[in-house]
Design a protein that fits this description.
Length: about 100
């Protein structure tokens, strides 16, 4: 439905403007209500996100011990002493700390 705005009188244009304003307000109210309902739904159904990983600065027990008493937790970059030992053919399991030594 197209309206020829040029052909309407001033009174008709004012009535049309009032109708448009009422229609816009009704749609705005409905959209706001729908949004409020969705907000309530998502607030109830959403579970809090679990934090992943470990907090910075957390201390870990060493897992590996080197020939000179150096220790490594097994996290991060492989230390030089272990890289050197692996390069000459050593078994990394040989450097693991035994349960009774901890």
């Amino acid at each position: 439905m197209q309206i020829d705005v040029e052909a309407l009188s001033v009174e008709q244009l004012i009535r049309l403007q009032d109708q448009i304003s009422k229609q816009l307000e009704a749609r705005r109210t409905k959209a706001s209500s729908d949004l409020a309902q969705l907000s309530l739904y998502f607030d109830k159904s959403r579970k809090p996100l679990k934090k992943r990983g470990v907090k910075p600065g957390t201390k870990f027990a060493p897992i590996y011990v080197g020939p000179a008493g150096e220790t490594w937790t097994g996290r991060g970059k492989t230390p030089c002493w272990l890289r050197h030992q692996l390069a000459i053919g050593a078994d990394p399991i040989a450097f693991r700390i035994k349960e009774d030594r901890v």
